[in-house]
Every structure is written in structure tokens, then in C-alpha cells.
């Protein structure tokens, strides 16, 4: 298969003109085999092989397709004006990944890179266009063929096939080698784009982490100011309301603290978050000991985690009002979180207090805290149940991990 008429004209070693012979059966079989190899290489690329695996596969298949002893992928290093042998086959140990070749016009690969054209040399010992690199001399190479490896708008390097035999590379072989180089070039472009995307995502994660850290600090300042204001107010009712508002702000701040330390800003471990909220409640609610029992590793969307934690915050605050112990010791409030059926969360808040008032109606809550609870449960598409215990009361909330479909 001849190269396209509008492609680069190959630079072929000068020699006496020869009449074009009719292709033999063996030559036709070789061309068919080359097409099969290109198809296999394309499948390897499409199946998501890693970049290094694709480099190795290209070097191996290029040598097979041209029945050559050696091949190598040469990566151009502009700062050194040299090629690094990035991948290859047939070479002695210590060559691939280590050895370098000059990228000036005095080497076959450099000649191809500088002229922008494929290069065939079937008699390196007689070459006058460029020198024979030492690595080729050491391995007894007599002939070489080089094509440009493009990548993301600029040359990545050169794909080279070398042989010790006395056969000759033909112009038709360039079509095969350039086809392999083009497939690898697309992978090079994809790899560079993926690295750029990863770098951009890393920068975004750093910025989002910093943003969450600052939001958390700001919310903590607001919470502290509310508590300070509460301490300055002589009205006990207003003092209590300001304290409750401060606790709600702190609960929201905790989610930003968790997100600032995590790698994923869209999802979080709901158990760790609720544990953090309960620790703050335990330190701020007087005469109560809060015990938190959560199943680890349950992840939900961050916005659903905030709503769920605010439900826990309100139920614990409400339980603290009714959890007084007649013995005078600190009453215990137990918070439990576990995975339920059908991909749901089950949250339980139980106290051992005197129980709810006789006129309590879960369908028509009077206090602000219970109105917040029922509003968030409805928003999450969940269910709320209350059960009388002996002693105390238990609230059980079941919510789906994922938002209900509209």
C-alpha cells in the first residue's frame, strides 16, 4: 500500500533505479499481515491500555510488521536536544528508559524530526546524510526506518525500526509504520489531555478545600458571636434561642470542616459527620451525656448529609430538654445510624427522660426545633416515627440515601 499522495515524501537512500516488479504472493501476504497488526494495535488503544502499555505494544508490533530485529519509541527532550529511548524491543538491558540518541541532523531520527519526513536507510555503513548512532553500531544494525510521532500539535518524537538483516525496507513499508505512529500519536494526545485535566482537577480540589475551610471558619465565628451575645442577654428565653441558633450554625460548619479534609466535595461519610456534630453537642448541652453509635463507610451527597445532621442536631437538643434524671446524674442520649433496607439510612435518637407532653402531635409540631425536623425529613423524602420507651422516648427517621426522583 503506497503512502498518500498528499502526505510527506519519504527520504530514501539514493540508489540505482530499478524496474517495479509485480507484487509477489509473499509481499501481498506481508501487507495483509501489516493491516492486521494495525487493527490489533487500534483495538489495544480503544480498550483503554495505559500509555506505557501502548508504547510497548507499538514498539513490539512495529517490529513484527516489518520483520525487524529492533524497534524503539524515541521521545524528544527539547531541553537536551536528544531523544530518550522511551520504549523498545530487541535492545540490550539498560537501553530502554535510559539510553539517549542525538536529535540533530547527524542522526537518522534527528534527520526525520528536522526534515519532517519519513527516512529510510538500507545501508547505514554507506550513509552520507547522517552518522550511525553508537547504539545501532553496538547492536550490529545495518538498516533503519524512522517516522515522526505527532502528539497534541507538536512532535512527541520518532518511531524507529532497525534491522541487522541485508533485506531492504521499501517505500510501501512507510505506510504501515506511519499508521502505527498515527495510532500512537492519538494516544499521546489523549494522555496529554488527561494529564492536563488531572492537573486542573487537582487545582480545583485545592481551591474547594480552601473555600470549605474558610466557610467553616466564618461559620464558627458566627456561632461564637451568637453565644457571646447570648451570654450578654439577661433574658433566659432569648439566651436559649441564641444558643440553639449558634448550635445550628456550628452543625452546618462541621460539614465544611469534613469537606475541607476530604478528596470528594460532593459526597461524604455521613457517620463521621454525625459523630462530629454529636461531639459538639456533648460539649455544649448541660447535664447530658451523648453516646453516638454509627455504621462507618455510609456515603451520601453532601447536601443530604447537612439536612440529616441538622435533624440529629434538633432531636438531640429536644431530647436534652426532656432527659433529666431524677437521681441528679447526667442523663444519656443515644444517637444511632445504620444502613436500612432499600438503600436507606436509619437514624435513631433516644433519651431516658420523662417522655413527651400529652398533647404532642408529630403531625402538627409546635416548637421550632420539631418544625425544622419535619421540614427536613419531608425534603429528604423520608419518614419520621416516635415511640414511647420505658423510660424515655425514641425518634426514628428513615431516609433514602439518594434524592427521590421528581
The tally of strands reads: 14
Shape: elongated
Strand order of the largest sheet: 1-5-6-7-2-3-4
The major pleated sheet works out as:
7 strands, mixed
Give the distance, in angstroms, between the N- and C-terminal Cα atoms. 58 Å
User: Looking at CATH, which topology of the largest domain would you report?
Assistant: Beta-Lactamase
Q: What's the CATH class label of the largest domain?
A: Alpha Beta
* Chain oligomer state: single chain
Helix-strand pattern: EHHEEEHEHEEHHEHEEHEEHEE
Helix content: 40-55%
Number of helices: 9
Uncertain regions: pLDDT < 50 for 5+ in a row?
A: 1-5, 15-21
Summed up, the domain count is 2
Mean pLDDT: 79
How much strand content do the residues show?
Answer: 15-25%
Structural Rg: 36 Å
CATH architecture of the largest domain: 2-Layer Sandwich
CATH-level-4 superfamily name of the largest domain: GAF domain
User: What structural class do the secondary elements suggest?
Assistant: alpha+beta
Amino acid at each position: 500500500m503506497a503512502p498518500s499522495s498528499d502526505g510527506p515524501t519519504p527520504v530514501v537512500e539514493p540508489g540505482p533505479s530499478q524496474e517495479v516488479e509485480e507484487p509477489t504472493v509473499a509481499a501481498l501476504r506481508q501487507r495483509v499481515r501489516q493491516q492486521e497488526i494495525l487493527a490489533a494495535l487500534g483495538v489495544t488503544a480503544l480498550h483503554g491500555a495505559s500509555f506505557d502499555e501502548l508504547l510497548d505494544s507499538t514498539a513490539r508490533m512495529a517490529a513484527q510488521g516489518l520483520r525487524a530485529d529492533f524497534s524503539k519509541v524515541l521521545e524528544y527532550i527539547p531541553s537536551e536536544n536528544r531523544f530518550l529511548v522511551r520504549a523498545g524491543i530487541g535492545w540490550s538491558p539498560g537501553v530502554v528508559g535510559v539510553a539517549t540518541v542525538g536529535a540533530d541532523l547527524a542522526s537518522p531520527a534527528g534527520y526525520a524530526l528536522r526534515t519532517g519526513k519519513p527516512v529510510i536507510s538500507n545501508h547505514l555503513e554507506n550513509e552520507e546524510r547522517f552518522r550511525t548512532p553508537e547504539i545501532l553500531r553496538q547492536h550490529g544494525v545495518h538498516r533503519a526506518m524512522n517516522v515522526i510521532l505527532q502528539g497534541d500539535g507538536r512532535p512527541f518524537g520518532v518511531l524507529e525500526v532497525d534491522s541487522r538483516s541485508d533485506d531492504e525496507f521499501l517505500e510501501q513499508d512507510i505506510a504501515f509504520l506511519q499508521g502505527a505512529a498515527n495510532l500512537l500519536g492519538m494516544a499521546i494526545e489523549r494522555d496529554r489531555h488527561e494529564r492536563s485535566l488531572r492537573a486542573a482537577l487537582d487545582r480545583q480540589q485545592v481551591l474547594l478545600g480552601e473555600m470549605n475551610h474558610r466557610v467553616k471558619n466564618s461559620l464558627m465565628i458566627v456561632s461564637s458571636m451568637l453565644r457571646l451575645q447570648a451570654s450578654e442577654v439577661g433574658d433566659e428565653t432569648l439566651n436559649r434561642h441564641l444558643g440553639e441558633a449558634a448550635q445550628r450554625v456550628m452543625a452546618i460548619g462541621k460539614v465544611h470542616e469534613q469537606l475541607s479534609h476530604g478528596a470528594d466535595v460532593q459526597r461524604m461519610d455521613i457517620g463521621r459527620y454525625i459523630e462530629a456534630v454529636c461531639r459538639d453537642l456533648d460539649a455544649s448541652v448541660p447535664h447530658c451525656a451523648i453516646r453516638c453509635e454509627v455504621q462507618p463507610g455510609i456515603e451520601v451527597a453532601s447536601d443530604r448529609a447537612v439536612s440529616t445532621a441538622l435533624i440529629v442536631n434538633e432531636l438531640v437538643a429536644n431530647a436534652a430538654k426532656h432527659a433529666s434524671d431524677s437521681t441528679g446524674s447526667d442523663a444519656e442520649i443515644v444517637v444511632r445510624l445504620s444502613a436500612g433496607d432499600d438503600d436507606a439510612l436509619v437514624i435513631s435518637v433516644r433519651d431516658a427522660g420523662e417522655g413527651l407532653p400529652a398533647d404532642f402531635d408529630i403531625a402538627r409540631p409546635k416548637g421550632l426545633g420539631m418544625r425544622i425536623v419535619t421540614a427536613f425529613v419531608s425534603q429528604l423524602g423520608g419518614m419520621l416515627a416516635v415511640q414511647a420507651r420505658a423510660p424515655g422516648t425514641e425518634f426514628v427517621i428513615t431516609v433514602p440515601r439518594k434524592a427521590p426522583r421528581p
